[in-house]
Amino acid sequence: MEGIGWLLALILGALAGWIAEKIMNSNMGLLMNIVMGIIGALVGNFLLYAIVGSTLGGILGQMIVAVLGACLLIAIVRGLRRA
């Protein structure tokens, strides 16, 4: 989430975490939504940069990357809990 500021990162993180929570049908709470959204954005941007060589720009692009990254993290956590 380069260049969007801390406040907007928290808001986008919370929104992305909430959307991922609804997509993945889990119940995490507000704080975990923020954490999963922000970490999901970092992971998503890292993977996107490693694969494509760039990231999606703008707030909407970052939201998409954050939601997909948070969904990926939720799936990983679910997989680790089962093991």
Task: Spell out the blueprint of helices and strands.
Elements: H1 6-24, H2 30-52, H3 58-82
Q: How much helicity do the residues have?
A: over 70%
Tell me the β content.
under 5%
Q: Please give the domain count.
A: 1
The assigned structural class equals mainly alpha
Shape: globular
Individual helix count: 3
Radius of gyration from CA coordinates: 12 Å
Low-confidence stretches: none
How far the N terminus sits from the C terminus, by CA atoms, comes to: 32 Å
Report mean pLDDT, rounded to a whole number.
84
The string of secondary-structure elements, in order, is HHH
The biggest beta sheet reads: none
The count of strands amounts to 0
Compose a concise summary of this entry.
81% of the residues lie in helices and 0% in strands. With 83 residues, it is mainly α.
Descriptive notes:
The protein has 83 residues and is mostly helical. Helices cover 81% and strands 0% of the residues. The protein has helices spanning 6-24, 30-52, 58-82. Helix 2 (30-52) packs across helix 3. The radius of gyration is 12 Å and the shape is globular.
List keywords for this structure.
single chain, 83 residues, mainly alpha, 81% helix, globular, membrane
